[in-house]
Amino acid sequence: MCPECETNGHLFARHRIDLARPHAASRIAERLRSEGLVTFDGVRSRTQALALADQIMTVSPHRDSDSDGLTTIRDTRHHAGRAGFAGFGNGALQPHTERSGIPCPPRLMMLVCERAAITGGESVCVDGRAVLADLAAVAHETVIALAQPRSAYFGAGDGHPCQVITVHADNRVELRLRQDDLARFSPIVQPHLPRLRAAISRRQMALRLAPGEGYVLDNWRWLHARNAFTGDRVCWRVLGAPSFALAEGFTPAPTTASVPISVRP
Fold this sequence. Notes:
Radius of gyration: 18 Å
Strand content: 25-35%
Number of strands: 17
CATH topology: Double-stranded beta-helix
CATH architecture: 4-Layer Sandwich
Helix content: 10-25%
Number of domains: 1
Structural class: alpha+beta
Distance between the termini: 37 Å
């Protein structure tokens, strides 16, 4: 974890929504629209995690999810070295977009801690809005390169050609990234990856979740990762589409708006 990462307590408290207060789901929706990240506590069971997810999203089952739509994230000791399955080990994960290799990644991701690690295992969150602002301030050409259509390919043979930055017609921005063996970048993008990774590193924020604590993030804005850990860390992950109105992408910082980024064809 980089020394500039925001402390766990400050990040959690700044984004926390009290689930016991009236209209908690509406407050979560409002915060996701404005900041893209919500933290919470008091979710002690799988049933409670599903109930919370059902209030804010339509759950999307997928390859790794269990029959109820939740995915149990733990070290299975059977997935070591398998591309695309690193989350089921105990190693570090680089900041990424969940399910980046499909045409339309899920908009929301919720993670709840059932059992904390003995050491390590912190969740790492990165606000793409801040990353884009950093790049726009010092490296306009990097922003433009990352927005070139079909300049990246994420996934295996059934993956998806895309770009790291997608700009919609209303100038809202969508971020998509992975940094493992299933990520390929065009020669146009490759020289700019060190700047992108440096900006991501500067904006990393760590969350050491205790049992019952968790977060929901806008998967098109926030990247997420994990530090390596020891012990039997167990989390529940839920992916889905918001059950409330949420505009495509996020509004860039004012300093970013002056950069002439290509618009998705």
